[in-house]
Amino acid sequence: MTMQLIGWALVHSLWQVALVAFVVAGLFALMRHAPPTLRYAVGMAGLGLMLALPVVTAFRTTSAVSRSFSSTALSTGTTGSETLADAERGRSGQLSSGLSAPAASASATPSATVTTDGAKRAAETTPRPVGVESLSAFAAGVRAIANRYVPLALPWMVAAWLLGLLVLSARLIGGITRTRRLTTHSTSRAEERVVLAVRRVSRTLGVDRLVRVLQSTSIDVPMVVGALRPIVVVPASLITGMTPWQLEMLLAHEIAHIRRYDYLGNLAQTVVETLLFYHPAARWLSERVRDERENCCDDIAVAACGDPAAYTATLLALEESRTDGLVFAAAATGGSLVKRARRLLVRESNHSDLGPRWIAGLITIVAALFTATQAVGGTVRTAFVREASVSPPRSIASDTISRKRDDGWPDASRAAPERVLRAPAGGSLAERWRWAEKQGRNLPSRSYWIGYVVAAPSDESARYYFDANVPVRIGESTFSGRMQLGDGPLSDFRFAGAALAPLVGNHAPRSTAIFMLVDRGNPSRVERIHLSSFALPVHFDRAPLLWLDSAGDSESIERMRSYMLTARSEDIRRELVAATGVHQDSRLVVPFLIGLLQSRTETEGVRREAAEWLGKKPDPRSIAALVRAARTDQNEGVRHDAIEAFGHMKYTAASDTLIALGQSLESEELRKVAIEALGHRADARALEYLTRMARSGRSPELRIHAIEAIGSLPDGRGFATITDIARNDPSSEIRRKAVEELAHAEPPSRAMEVLRQIIRSDPDPSVQSEAAETIAEVNDPRTVGILTELAKSGSDLRVQLEATESLGETAAPREAMAALRELARAHESLEVRKKALETIGDFHEEQGSVEALVQV
């Protein structure tokens, strides 16, 4: 019973703690201008509520179980032993349906189990709002699934929680022990001048308790230990290495901790963190509370010494000697130093930061619970999620690429196949495939690869690497998915896997190798597809390879058709469409893709994939099918991809088609897609139409999209048009957008001269400010100098402020930092000086930021 109670309390705590965190985050946002003491109080109350809610949940569940026992005993006329047995059964049912414990308790009473015919008729004839039945059915289904399967996981959840609690409790006790040892090991009574300094600061801050002072050689920063009998432990190195005034400022911070009883607050926080260690929201709030605690003590110390800059400089001196691990002692170096410095020097308000870490953790928890519910409740249909667009290096054209963190790499020892069997020479692909399936039945592995090659692409610039399971590293970035490589060098690319030629013999480097991982027991089931140019390595993960050598397009495409009939996963079906699209025989590929595009039974994802690959086939039939889909298809996503497919089509008529779509489509959103696709066309007709749209489009949004498309035209062919619009268009909004596009011009010197001229001559300060901001994005050695000049003597204060802020975005941080220091010290405008201080604080290099703030 206790195991069940704890388990359900843990389950409910997932949403309860998250709810408290959201409420507290909202309060923090509302109180961003309030004193840190108020935010600290709210944060501590939130932590207490986070701990109290699971306890209350467990208590209420216990009370419900107790009422169930009483009801069961009173409603039965049985012997004592029978009553006890019934009660035990009631308790079991009560706990196993933990999501509906009150309902279970009610059903134990006679009145809850008897329903008259009249009541039934009344319930049946009572009108219910539309959708209530389906919603109730869904809720009942979810509750039934949870009641059935969650109790099975509760013992494991509680065991894991207890194990974590045991480990963290040991850490808690060890931390307390180590903290207390600070007062007995490597310590001695502090020098008399330090003791007198502590007494002076205590009187100033109104602390009348006895405070012991020790000096220690085992720590680097001063800290407070204990609450009822507080002890200030001062590093011996600071006593000789700091001026008396600096030492008193640090002591003021420590005495402030004593005055506020922060040792107890810190200890209570750690207890909450230990009990709720599994919840990222609790950790986020605890970190915020610690930050606010340090802010409170900083304010007290600054009020005592009266010099924020001197106090911040003293904190900076401690930064390099920070001592970690003694979390139960309150120390002056807690929290982010750069945030504390900005708050003290610039008087910047703290804003509520929801913290991407705990939000990501919360989403993970909810997704895990939802996935588990779906998995046990019925079959799961894998849905394809269209991955976000990523801008890879110029040598890559991406189809479906998902950028991943550079945190893993396939095991090189498993790159090669466990064995390679080659099919006998001769025979059709179908005959060799049957040979492979026969050989596969005798292999010990559960799955095996079947591979072969088809002819190289007719476009010599086309190289492929399709594998959703194996990443590719390009410099510092990692990608996976379907990648179409250009014809440039691949020296910066790192591919995982084994070279093919030593395994299967030589083939043309640009020929396309196709591999399918199939199930030994069901060879018609494809588990994974890899497709790449033959010269690129393949990671087989030690699965055996049955190699069929070369195949013609006709028999290879027929094989793809057969697998499309049996594949159920949409991801695999999309991979099969892509594998069909790489074949060169348009007479076979195009009709197959058109059939998928126009199908009324295929999924949206497969149809969009077909539209994308039709765009790679410069064929009149492809254009006709895509135009029809763009104009009349019922699915908005399919229409979008059909229009987009014309952008990269190597066919002169594609530009005319996009122009016609941009002029005639009723949907403004789809017309925007056509305009954006024209930005990839390298011909005069595209530039002419986009220029006309940018100057006299029907709506400001279409004009802005046209300007963006002109800016992305290949080879900088749109630069002159963008420059003319930025200088002369009557609309300031359009001029601002054109100015923004100048940041990407090549060479950068062209854009720099135009931007400087716009700042001098444009009548609208907002356009001038946009030009100043754009200068920071131009990769030119003069950028910092020009921005500094604008910040000092710009024609408008708005331009000066924008130039000052833009200094923080340049590619030369050292020169920018020097310019910002000068502006913060000497500029005649208070607004510019303040903006310079804020920009210094925004620099990523924390130590340099704080040093600059202190120097100013």
Brief characterization of the structure:
By secondary structure, this protein is of the alpha+beta class. Helix content is 60%, strand content 10%.
List key phrases describing it:
five-stranded mixed beta sheet, nine-stranded mixed beta sheet, 36 helices, Leucine-rich Repeat Variant, alpha+beta, 856 residues
Q: What is the secondary structure topology, with strand pairs?
A:
Blueprint (H helix, E strand, L loop, with lengths): L1 H29 L5 H39 L5 H17 L4 H7 L2 H4 L3 H9 L6 H50 L5 E3 L2 H14 L6 E5 L6 E3 L5 E5 H6 L2 H16 L2 H14 L4 H26 L2 H12 L10 E2 L5 H9 L10 H22 L18 E9 L15 E3 L6 H12 L6 E8 L8 E12 L2 E9 L7 E3 L5 H4 L7 E8 L6 E8 L11 E6 L2 H14 L3 H12 L4 H12 L6 H11 L5 H13 L3 H10 L7 H12 L3 H11 L5 H13 L3 H12 L7 H10 L3 H10 L6 H14 L3 H11 L7 H11 L3 H10 L6 H14 L3 H12 L4 H10 L1
Parallel strand pairs: 2-4, 7-14, 8-14
Antiparallel strand pairs: 1-2, 3-4, 3-5, 6-10, 8-12, 9-10, 9-11, 9-13, 12-13
Helix pairs in contact: 1-2, 1-7, 1-12, 2-3, 2-4, 2-11, 2-12, 3-4, 7-11, 8-10, 10-12, 11-12, 12-15, 13-14, 13-36, 14-36, 18-19, 19-21, 20-21, 20-22, 21-23, 22-23, 23-25, 24-25, 25-27, 26-27, 27-29, 28-29, 29-31, 30-31, 31-33, 32-33, 32-34, 33-35, 34-35
How would you describe this protein?
By secondary structure, the chain is of the alpha+beta class. Among the domains are: about 175-275 and about 290-335, no CATH class; about 395-570, no CATH class; about 585-650, Alpha Horseshoe (Leucine-rich Repeat Variant), CATH 1.25.10; about 745-855, Leucine-rich Repeat Variant, CATH 1.25.10. The chain has 36 helices and 14 strands. The strands form 2 sheets. Strands 6, 7, 8, 9, 10, 11, 12, 13 and 14 form a 9-stranded mixed beta sheet that branches. β3 and β4 (about 230-235) form a beta hairpin. α27 (about 700-710) packs parallel to α29 (about 730-740). The longest helix is centred in the first third of the chain and has 50 residues, at about 130-180. The chain is globular. The two termini are about 65 Å apart. Mean pLDDT is about 80; it is low at about 70-135, about 325-330 and about 350-405.
